[in-house]
Design goal:
The complex is a heterodimer of chains A (about 260) and B (about 70).
Chain A lengths: L10 H15 L7 E5 L14 E4 L5 H11 L4 E7 H7 L1 H10 L4 E6 L2 E2 L5 E2 L23 H8 L3 E6 L3 H13 L4 E6 L3 H7 L5 H10 L1 E3 H9 L7 E8 L5 H12 L1
Parallel strand pairs in A: 1-2, 1-3, 3-4, 4-8, 7-8, 9-10
Antiparallel strand pairs in A: 5-6, 7-10
Chain B lengths: L1 E3 L9 H5 L5 E3 L11 E3 L10 H5 L5 E3 L6
Antiparallel strand pairs in B: 1-4, 2-3
The chains are: A alpha/beta (about 260), B alpha+beta (about 70).
The structure holds thiamine diphosphate (TPP) and iron/sulfur cluster (3 copies).
The site of one iron/sulfur cluster (SF4) has 14 residues of chain B, from α1.
């Protein structure tokens, strides 16, 4: 299967690398793991993993994953999804899986654009950014996937970039061990579409840009306490709480009905 | 030993950039795949932090630990 089909320096490969290392370190049984994805460059990841997988429809990875988990709660279910897949066409599925607190891990590879289809605007595209459908710059406010997950009540939410491999692997490990909906967003370079249209250079320049344009939540919270603010995107572990997941609630409920 | 699989490498140079000990340089020779892969120029400087291995998007690098056979 290797080399992958991804472009030179595409961050999707890095996220796949981080995820597989987390899975390896945790000794997760691949015979009891299912990888689910929708459509997009990032949704091709399960195709490279020697395990069961579902390459479903654009935006529908999360409902498929929910189905797998409810039908066979023994399985560990891991979703790879693009920012368009997760936040645009699949946006409602995302919200409602969090609301239900289904025990799945969603790894969202956010490259700020629709990579696979040639670089159209995504709901995560920053203001003023150029895409093929916003050639003069985007005028729509972007959504923040991690903040959405936090607000709806996901018990584990973390955001890193491909320039933070060690931290990202540690968050993916925590996400995989969490019972309930866990969400890890990874800001990832798409040099071919987003990078080229916005003259951001190669993946080297883009990863440097990620380091400069993000701020760790711990530093951010200190700044807030001092009354300061920043435009930088907050990264780090954003939520880590315990919350009863859907399967547990469902089983209890069935027990009570008897 | 550091192994670079030039059949997988796409020449993004993340390894060259992020290695804290500057073990790699960009090769001057094109690989079979038509890219300039990294060349392991100063292997003795490697501290086996595995960062290059972690960051490579193409699974092209394996860094063996000293006690690995
Ligand atoms: C129902 C449906 N609508 C539209 C498409 C076309 N389509 C394929 S991938 C994609 C967007 C991909 O963007 P994203 O999910 O961010 O993933 P990326 O390619 O950037 O990793 C679109 C619109 C489709 N395949 N199916
Ligand atoms: S188009 Fe962008 S997201 Fe898709 S493989 Fe190429 S660099 Fe990656
Ligand atoms: S990081 Fe990997 S793909 Fe990129 S240049 Fe180095 S070996 Fe090649
Ligand atoms: S293991 Fe660390 S020191 Fe050694 S080549 Fe890789 S990045 Fe450099």
């Amino acid at each position: 299967m290797l080399p992958t089909i991804f472009c030179t320096g595409c961050g999707i490969g890095s996220v796949m690398n981080f995820s597989l290392r987390a899975i390896h370190d945790l000794n997760i049984d691949m015979n009891k793991t299912v990888f689910v994805s929708g459509i997009g460059c990032s949704s091709r990841v399960p195709g490279y993993i020697y395990s069961d997988g579902l390459h479903s429809l654009h935006g529908r990875a999360i409902p498929y994953a929910t189905g797998v988990k409810l039908a066979n709660p023994e399985l560990k279910v891991i979703v790879f999804t693009g920012d368009g897949d997760c936040g645009a066409i699949g946006g409602n599925h995302f919200l409602h899986a969090i609301r239900r607190n289904v025990d799945i891990t969603v790894i969202s590879i956010n490259n700020f654009i629709y990579g696979m289809t040639g670089g159209q605007v995504a709901p995560t595209t920053p203001l003023k950014s150029k895409t093929t459908t916003t050639p003069y710059g985007n005028i729509e406010y972007p959504i923040d996937l991690s903040m959405m997950a936090k607000v709806i009540g996901a018990p584990y939410v973390a955001r890193w970039t491909t320039a933070h491999p060690v931290q990202c692997i540690s968050s993916i490990k925590k996400a995989l061990q969490k019972t309930g909906f866990s969400f890890v967003e990874v800001l990832s370079p798409c040099p071919t579409s987003y990078g080229r249209l916005n003259k951001m250079g190669t993946t080297l320049d883009m990863t440097k840009h990620f380091k400069e344009s993000t701020i760790n939540i711990k530093i951010y919270e200190k700044m807030l306490a001092e009354g300061k603010t920043t435009d930088k995107m907050v990264i780090g572990e954003l939520v880590d709480i315990e919350k009863e997941d859907f399967n547990t609630k469902y089983n209890k409920f069935c027990g009570e009905l008897k | 030993m550091i192994h670079v699989n030039t059949n997988y490498c796409k020449g993004c140079l993340l390894c060259v950039e992020y290695c804290p000990k500057k073990v790699y340089v960009k090769s001057e020779k094109l690989s079979k795949k038509g890219v300039f892969p990294p060349e392991v120029k100063f292997p003795e400087n490697c501290i086996r932090c595995h960062l290059c291995e972690l960051m490579c998007p193409d699974f092209a690098i394996i860094v063996e630990d000293k006690n690995d056979k």
